[in-house]
Amino acid sequence: MADGRPAPAVWLVDKPAGPTSHDIVARIRRALPGKAKVGHAGTLDPFATGLLVVLVGSATRLSRYLVGLSKRYEATFRLGYRSETLDPEGPITDGGPVPSRPAVLPALAEVADRDSQATPAFSAARVDGERLWRAARRGDTAPGPERTIVIHELTLESFDQETGDAGVSIHCGSGTYVRQIAADVGDVLGCGAYCATLRRTGVGPWDVADAVAPDDVTAEGGIDLRAGLPGLGLRRMNAAERDEVRFGRPIAAAGATGELVALVDDAGLHAVARRAGGELRPTVVLS
């Protein structure tokens, strides 16, 4: 810590059901000394659990490089019902008879093959400067605009025709709404569906098995960033180069890979730089 403030860090946190992602961030902020900055790289709905990437101190500046990472989920799609919010918050109504397992598989494949989806009416996305959920609470529950998505994998893991519960695993690109995937599958089947449970199991290369509870985030620690950040190149620095980077000065690009490069030494990640000719010019400096 410097001046009583936590060191910049990235934490893998296992979010429980109930609180919003903002609530988790606020809880961690209150627990840390020095009025620390705390943020996250990818929202989870209140009913959802699992991996929330939490950024502490100047590491909040890294959010732009992490929000675009792919995500992995385990979910329960409840077939035969419709939910206005597409999740357990409801209200929930009957949707129709639950089909057999052989009908579910091609419906999942059809939805997985799509490259766009509607933005759920109850979401934090903005249209004309207003959050969609605010308009939905006024009675305007029309879906938002279509957004481009990527679904790498949508696999049926279990199926109970009596309850209508289909357990699925999902690997998708950033910005994909799993709630909307559930509703789209229900529409293809003609019986309705909503996302009854949702757990994020991975973000990029990180796994929820390595996450800690929100109350276990401390002023020192976090994940080891000596290998840089996923999706970025890497450049190891000597002490003299580290001192230059601390003041935002460029260093030689020799030995670096990629256009955006994580600058590290044995102590960890110090900055992210952009290649400019034969130089690496820092765009984000952590210390």
Sum this structure up briefly.
With 287 residues, the chain is an alpha+beta fold. It folds into 3 domains: 71 residues, no CATH class; 133 residues, 2-Layer Sandwich (Pseudouridine synthase), CATH 3.30.2350.10; 53 residues, Archaeosine Trna-guanine Transglycosylase, Chain: A, domain 4, CATH 2.30.130.10.
Question: Which features characterize this protein?
Answer:
single chain, 287 residues, alpha+beta, Pseudouridine synthase, Archaeosine Trna-guanine Transglycosylase, Chain: A, domain 4, 3 domains, 8-stranded mixed sheet, 5-stranded mixed sheet, 6 helices, 36% strand, elongated
Question: Can you offer a commentary on this structure?
Answer:
This protein has 287 residues and is an alpha+beta fold. It has 3 domains: 9-68 and 206-216, no CATH class; 71-203, Pseudouridine synthase (2-Layer Sandwich), CATH 3.30.2350; 233-285, Archaeosine Trna-guanine Transglycosylase, Chain: A, domain 4 (Roll), CATH 2.30.130.10. The chain contains 6 helices and 19 strands. It has helices spanning 21-31, 63-66, 101-112, 132-137, 178-189, 239-246; strands at 9-15, 38-40, 49-56, 71-79, 81-83, 92-94, 116-118, 126-127, 130-131, 146-148, 151-160, 165-172, 193-203, 206-207, 233-236, 251-252, 260-265, 268-276, 279-285. Strand 2 (38-40) and strand 3 (49-56) form a beta hairpin. Helix 3 (101-112) crosses helix 5.
